[in-house]
């Protein structure tokens, strides 16, 4: 029977519908599914796009979804190893009075690919190609790849973009009625396990316990913090 627990079966449609439509002769629209091609690593995506270039389908509109670790071109954020996601969000929200110049240039990348497609000059590309073009046009490759998903026929991404419901929601991926291909699917179990797992170090636990001690000792939401402190104590 259908999977009722998974969020992909809810059929939620976003304003940016990730499905394509083509008009029939009578004016109605028929749903044309996208192909979501999931791989274990970003390196494998590079290998697949390289092979795609050699086929007759090289001109098919595509995009590659990946993390900011691979696509961020902001000189400050990209050089920060620890918290690129947090720094990016802070820039987008303008918390410190600064915004991201590259984010505001996203349309330059998407328009570039649209022009290529219109003139039948579209060719399969890799993450490095998008990042290189982004640096040239001063446009964010991370958000441009997401914009290109709207008109793409093939979407390449790591497994967890398809398996993890939180990532699917944040990336506005709707898998209902779409075609999903999982390369080397025997790795799915490990990827699914990682998606619902989280690792912490002992030093992180001790630091958390100290902060919770401070909260409890200063009568700050004791009922909430005392159980958390007990968990940290038992783990350490």
SSE topology:
Blueprint (H helix, E strand, L loop, with lengths): L19 E4 L5 E4 L2 E5 L2 H12 L8 E3 L3 H4 L12 H10 L12 H13 L8 H11 L3 H8 L5 E5 L1 H4 L1 H6 L8 E4 L5 H8 L6 H16 L4 H14 L1
Parallel strand pairs: 3-5, 3-6, 4-5
Antiparallel strand pairs: 1-2
Helix pairs in contact: 4-6, 10-11
Describe the protein's architecture and organization.
With 236 residues, the chain is of the alpha/beta class. It has two domains: 35-196, 3-Layer(aba) Sandwich (Rossmann fold); 202-235, no CATH class. It contains eleven helices and six strands. The protein has helices at residues 42-53, 68-71, 84-93, 106-118, 127-137, 141-148, 160-163, 165-170, 188-195, 202-217, 222-235; strands at residues 20-23, 29-32, 35-39, 62-64, 154-158, 179-182. The strands form two sheets. It has a four-stranded parallel β-sheet. Strand 1 and strand 2 (29-32) form a beta hairpin. Helix 4 (106-118) crosses helix 6 (141-148) and helix 10 (202-217) packs antiparallel against helix 11 (222-235). The longest helix has 16 residues, at 202-217. The termini are far apart. The relative contact order is 0.17. Mean pLDDT is 84; it is low at 10-16.
